[in-house]
């Protein structure tokens, strides 16, 4: 079937039946590909490019997709794409701006941005978040340093606002 073009091999033991469009073969969707690879629906796809939507001054473009999951760790090439699988004990079912904010702070060391600028902008942007939702997200998903940092920022903003 591979020789006939009915199936394409993406990775060892992972195949897909390509669909055709006017532009050629259509690759599988990332979520379907990852689900088949993990044999599990419980994962979260995230691109560091998503951090740019928070308005914190991040502008870099990254050519990677991070997969938070409970089974696999490492970079795996599936078809023509590389996925950075990271085992995490907890992650939400869907991305929201609070999780992106916390995840950016958790992964600040791995970004190509000026950390000081990003942190200053993050502290200034706290008012754009619903405080209780942000506190809950930090509590559940934040690394120790992120928890301390956001807690300190929130205390300082309450003093200033009082």
What do you see in this structure?
The protein has helices at 30-38, 97-106, 115-124, 131-141, 144-161; strands spanning 8-11, 14-16, 19-21, 24-26, 43-46, 65-69, 74-78, 81-87. Strand 1 (8-11) and strand 2 (14-16) form a beta hairpin. Strands 5-6-8-7 form a four-stranded mixed β-sheet, with helices on one face. Strands 1-2 form a two-stranded antiparallel sheet. A two-stranded antiparallel ribbon has the order 3-4. Helices cover 36% and strands 21% of the residues. The chain is an alpha+beta fold and 162 residues long. The model has no long low-confidence stretch (mean pLDDT 89). It has one domain. It is elongated and about 70 Å long. Helix 4 runs antiparallel to helix 5 (144-161).
How do you describe this structure in short?
This protein has about 160 residues and is an alpha+beta fold.
Whole-Å distance between the termini?
70 Å
Helicity level: 25-40%
Portion in strands: 15-25%
Query: Uncertain segments of ≥5 residues (pLDDT<50)?
Result: none
Query: How many β-strand runs?
Result: 8
Sheet bearing the most strands, described?
Answer: 4 strands, mixed
The number of domains:
1
Strand order of the largest sheet: 5-6-8-7
Class from secondary-structure proportions = alpha+beta
Q: Could you state the order of secondary-structure elements as H and E?
A: EEEEHEEEEHHHH
General shape: elongated
Mean pLDDT: 89
Question: Count of helical segments?
Answer: 5
CA radius of gyration is 19 Å
Determine the oligomeric state from the structure. single chain
